[in-house]
Amino acid sequence: MSDPRYGETMKSKGGLGRLVNALKYTWQGLLAAARHEEAFRQELVVVVPLAVSAWLLPGIPLLERALLFGTLLLILIAELLNSAIEANTDHISLERHPLAKRAKDMGSAAVFLAILIAAATWAAVIWTRLA
């Protein structure tokens, strides 16, 4: 059985150390996703050039640029959460179970909806600029 005090020892005490640890854990999470999640890598191949484009496209107001960039980050956020759900579900059990399938399918649906939001936003911004 695990140590019941484990959670207490993992809790941050606050201050600058907490911020440093949070940034370290964030970086580790991004690296883990890039190393172990094919979907995250595929999305990065699309998101990175589009993110650069969002800031370089001429004639687009700052707020629209931020919207374009933000929707791309939303895709990555959804994928990170989906990957976390899948990893945790697989950690608990690799056995097929309807609740595990439901959790994984919902995570996948969240990624899909984030992609739809990004696509609709990009289409709307580009359409208004070209029309």
Quick overview of this protein structure:
The protein is an all-alpha fold and 131 residues long. It has five helices and no strands.
What does it look like?
- With about 130 residues, the protein is mainly α.
- It has a single domain, classed as Helix Hairpins (Orthogonal Bundle).
- It is about 85% helix and about 0% strand.
- The chain contains 5 helices and no strands.
- Helix 4 packs antiparallel against helix 5.
- The model has no long low-confidence stretch (mean pLDDT about 90).
List the helices and strands and how they pair.
Elements lengths: L5 H5 L4 H22 L1 H19 L5 H31 L5 H33 L1
How much helix, percentage-wise, in residues? Answer: over 70%
CATH class: Mainly Alpha
Estimate the strand proportion.
under 5%
Integer-rounded radius of gyration? 19 Å
Distance between the termini: 64 Å
Number of strands: 0
Which descriptors would you attach to this protein?
131 residues; Helix Hairpins; mainly alpha; globular; 5 helices
